[in-house]
Write a structure and sequence with these properties.
homodimer; about 300 residues; alpha/beta; TIM Barrel; 8-stranded parallel sheet; 8 strands; globular
Chain lengths: ~300, ~300
């Protein structure tokens, strides 16, 4: 295998976004085995936990322990999701290196998801940034604009709202702001248009594309984002985070298929695809009975596949 | 619904490519009901049958009758696949409006699929064109370069072979030459590169993109082809033509998801998505027990969906 500098960063969100969406709670030891396997495959950014009250999300009750373990893996950017200052405090105490804050572009979704208006969430971003500045200035803060491409509660979301919100998050002190297709409503033309608009507003502080595969467009949308300069992509091993075939499913983009697409294109991810596919074993073992998707793992790698070569 | 001129042509291949890949033989009456429903949804090009010996493909024994029925549907381009002059003769007699000839870019696949070398297939193309010129000059002849993006028998396929073969097909008198990812090995960078090279060689005679979803990249590859000017796309209702989850599967791009992608982008297909989804019923009824895929039909159309509007 040819050594290549990664050209894109694949940010694995399965241990947080995926696990908090399934009913079962994965045992902490299983989580750590899975995270180890992801790291061994070359994954260098993982959203490992969510700092929310355990009574709301028992799947995340071990968040601090998971963060502490992840910190022992060399070269890994350890991300925690925090919806508020209290969560940020706990995440910083545990040692998280990056905090990601969900900020809904849809007014209806914001109230439903975090019981706050968009304006109140901006206040929260400012408070989290103040805490970070005081306690842990090395920690990165990322605000992800959820429902950026449409909302199942209110329908369309105005692009101007998305762009303004991203700019307000940066003005509030966030280091980066990315766009999430929380509801699987994005299309490639919209992805290009909206990322271009956001980049025009916040430049290099434009963050990750977080795409869903609800209607099968996940990879096409990632390609569209790549085309307009996005270089960080959230995805979930096995598409964990909602059954892509169920109505209303979230359906994260499958990490394995995303890595296959980029590597086949000659866009280095830094991830060894065969080891990545092997990392499905601890996930499957830790969540018995849960569907684990992925077209590339099912079909197998193409004949003559050589990672690091430009195909085909 | 706003009337819009179609900007892309979706060429439905399910009744040929799909049905000849499943074990069961769909009853002729069911085929006609399905084709009627596709036409009612606005589909204006259908590959309805394959003219091959019935002992080899019993699923296509009723090819002539299916073509004759399809000819009664107004505005429909009726395509038949023909592997040789004998098939072309039968297809022309039945009234097919366009003949599509599979020409493998992979030497190994050519021998396995049609028991002919690539050179012998070019001779066949010339003979079919001669027959067409003599008997039915209004009939179009299309040569589709199969295994254009890689081959499960020989591995990589040289791009120069593909470009030269397409040019030779046009020189042999074919009206168009498209590219097929028969084996699901294509990636978006390769799709752009190869279609650009083919266009440089044969210009406006560049035909359809026929993509498979074997490793989940089907729609991304269609988007890539669209980006470099391709405007005709082969796809199959329900992804019929091989289980996308089985090793070695063909896994055609799902028509419903492809139409959703283009319509969501504001690229008119001329197809009513709700009627298209309704056209799954006769397919499912006619092939009991056969898996029928499609993420968009499973998830449903997004809230606020208005066909003919630019989303979102």
């Amino acid at each position: 295998m040819q050594a290549m500098n990664p050209k894109v960063l694949i940010s694995e969100v399965g241990p947080r976004d995926g696990l908090q969406s399934v009913k079962a709670t994965m045992a902490t030891a299983d989580k750590l085995r899975w995270i180890n396997a992801l790291h061994a495959a070359g994954v260098r950014e993982i959203e490992v936990a969510s700092f929310v009250p355990a009574r709301l999300l028992p799947q995340m009750a071990d968040a601090a322990g998971v963060v502490r373990h992840a910190l022992t893996l060399p070269g890994l950017m350890v991300i925690a999701l925090v919806p508020n200052v209290r969560g940020a405090q706990a995440a910083i105490e545990a040692g998280a290196m990056k905090l990601t804050i969900p900020v809904s572009a849809s007014a209806a979704h914001s109230l439903a998801n975090v019981r706050k208006t968009r304006e109140d969430m901006l206040v929260e971003v400012r408070s989290i940034v103040a805490l970070r500045n005081e306690r842990a200035p090395h920690v990165k803060v990322e605000a992800n604009i959820s429902t950026a491409f449409g909302c199942t509660l209110q329908g369309e979301v105005a692009e101007d709202d998305v762009v303004r919100l991203a700019a307000e998050c940066i003005a509030a002190g966030a280091d980066e702001s990315g766009l999430s297709d929380t509801t699987g409503m994005a299309n490639p033309a919209q992805v290009r248009r909206l990322f271009n608009k956001v980049r025009a507003a916040i430049g290099g502080r434009t963050g990750a594309a977080h795409m869903h595969n609800t209607r099968g467009l996940g990879l096409a949308n990632c390609l569209a984002a790549y085309d307009v300069g996005v270089r960080t992509f959230d995805s979930s091993m096995g598409g964990l985070g909602g059954c892509p075939y169920a109505p209303g499913a979230s359906g994260n983009v499958v990490t394995e298929d995303l890595v296959f697409m980029f590597e086949a294109m000659g866009v280095a991810t830094g991830i060894d695809l065969q080891k990545l596919i092997a990392a499905r074993a601890p996930l499957i073992a830790g969540l018995p009975g849960e569907p684990v998707y992925g077209m590339t793992p099912e079909a197998g790698l193409p004949m003559g596949w050589k990672q690091g070569a430009v195909h085909g």
